[in-house]
Amino acid sequence: MKLVAENVTKYIGKKEILKDVNLTMEAGHIYGFVGKNGSGKTMLFRALSGLMHISSGEIRLDNQVLHKDIKVLPSLGLIIENAGLYPELTGLNNLRLLAKINSKIDDREIYNAIRRVGLDPDDKRPFRKYSLGMKQRIIIAQAIMETPDIIMLDEPTNALDIEGVDEIRKIIMEEKKRGALILIASHNTDDITLLADTVYSICNGLIKESGEK
After folding, report:
1. Residues 164-191 pLDDT 10s
2. Other Cβ atoms closer than 10 A to 29
3. What b/e readout covers 158-168, taking b as 16+ CB neighbours within 10 angstroms?
4. Distance (Å, rounded) from C-alpha 180 to C-alpha 75?
5. Which of 11, 47, 139, 182 could cross-link with 30 by S-S, CB 3.0 to 4.6 Å?
6. Whole-angstrom Cα distance, residue 40 to residue 53?
C-alpha cells in the first residue's frame, strides 16, 4: 500500500498553505513531520486524509485518486486538533458512537482499544471530567480501535506523563509492526527521533526530507 502526494498545493484565500508537496509513503513505515505551529502540519494531514480539498496536484492511495475515485481514505485512524468528542458521554460511549459510522467493530474491539491506552472501559465519568492525559489517551483509542491501514497522529503524546508517553510510543510501534502506514507530527523531538523511519521538516507549507534511519 502506498500513499502518494504529487505536486500538492493548497490556497486559503490568497495564502498558500501547502506548496508543491511531493511524498511517497508505504505501509509498515512511520513518517515524522516536524515544524512550528502554523507551519502546515495539520493542514497536510487534513489534505492527505481527504478532509480538505487541495487547490492543485493529486493524492493517491495506490491507484485510487482522492476526491475522484474515493472521497476520503477508506481505512484511517486520525488525531488532529479539536477531537470533537461529546463532553457528557463516557469514553466508552463516545467510541461506541464513532464505531457506528463504519460499523466495522463491536464492543470487544472498543474495550480492547481503551485498555491498550491504559484506561478503564467501564469508567462512568463523562469525557468532560477526564484529565488532559486521559482525554489524549481516549482520543488515541479512537484512532486505533478499527485497526486502520493508515494512522495520522498530530501531537500523539501531548499532555501525557512519562509513563503515558512510553505506553503510546509502544502502541505506535505495535501498529507499525502490524503493517499500518503511520504519520506523526510532533513538537516532541523524541517522538520523531525514536519512532520515525523517515523525517520531514515543514515550514510555511514547504516540506523537505530531513533524515532517514
Report:
1. 999 999 999 999 999 999 999 988 889 9
2. 16
3. bebeeebbebb
4. 10
5. 182
6. 15
